[in-house]
Amino acid sequence: MIASTTGSSPTPTSTSASTSTSTSAPASTFAPASTSAPASAPHSATVLQPRPFGYVVGDLMQQRVLLEGGARAVDLTSLPKPGRIGAWLERRASSVVSDSQGHAWLVVDYQLINAPQAITTINIPAWDLHLRTSGLTLQVPAWPVSIEPLTQRTVIGQGGLQELRADRPAPSIPTGPLVRSIEIWAGALGVVLALWLGWVLWRNWRAAANQPFARAAREIRAAGEQSPQAWQAMHQAFDRTAGRVVQATTLPALFRAASHLDPLRPRIEAFFAQSRELFFGAGLPEHPISVGELCGELRRIERRHER
After folding, report:
1. What is the pTM of this model?
2. What is the pLDDT of residues 217-260, one digit of tens each?
């Protein structure tokens, strides 16, 4: 900070036998705040000014104005109002602070809000500070400072100081953990699929071995479609499906126990009628029902209703 004062010499001056006024700097860092004058005359303030150079857009500059003369404190009518000052500066909120020697200072901050295209000198404007107790007015003088652009308008073009720089390469991501995770989960998926496929095959094998019409189909292929053993295999399949011995007179019990066979009811009734003729009558008619075809259709219905 730089101390700035204007006014007469710091040597005390006496104006009358009954009234005298003297001012002196509170320390060796600044000059006297004012000289003797009428109560209403403006007085030059003791100001610690900011450094006069090296500012870019966004930087803060701070003024400090001494508010005490000797041991007598002074009061402010009002603090300077914050707001924009011209094209370059904005005054921020002010505050009053005390230093280690007990002197009161008014602290006023300014912020540079625009960026010049070249090094430029601007002024922190002068302003007046009104004191309520004594009615005095302290004059804070203007203060020139130099401001600079963030970058030069022309590029040096040497080394890394080029107009355009190459894109920064994207950081490489370690893929080892990701690959291991994929391998683990892919292996787990493979195991699950293998178990599921094994279960499906086992289920189909068990169904082919234990379901009534699946067993009947194997026996019919082994015995021949028109042999009595094929017809007996069909009777046994109907019995296992109904959970009881099924005859032509008890077919309603079969359809109550296995309602999914109802679409083939006419052909099942025809089978039982021709079976009675085969075993207890004149034998099969000229065009008998196809036991193998009927068993195949019953097996397809049976497979759709397997649990």
Report:
1. 0.42
2. 888 888 888 788 998 999 999 998 888 999 888 899 888 888 88
Cα 67 from Cα 7, distance rounded (Å): 16
Is a pLDDT exceeding 80 seen at residue 183? yes
Query: What single string gives the DSSP state of each residue in the chain?
Result: -EEE--SS-SS-EE-SSS-EE----SSTTS--S-----TTSEEEPPEEEPPSS-B-TT-EEEEEEE-EETTEE--BS-PPPPEEETTTEEE---EEEE-TTS-EEEEEEEEE-S--SS-EEEEEPPEEEEBTTT--EEEEPPEEEEE--SS-SS---BTTB-SS-PPPPPPPPP-HHHHHHHHHHHHHHHHHHHHHHHHHHHHHHHHHHHSHHHHHHHHHHHH-TTSHHHHHHHHHHHHHHHTS---GGGHHHHHHH-GGGGGGHHHHHHHHHHHHHHHHSS---SS---HHHHHHHHHHHHHHT--
The CA R_g of the chain, rounded to the nearest whole Å, is 55
Q: How far apart are CA 37 and CA 136, in angstroms?
A: 10
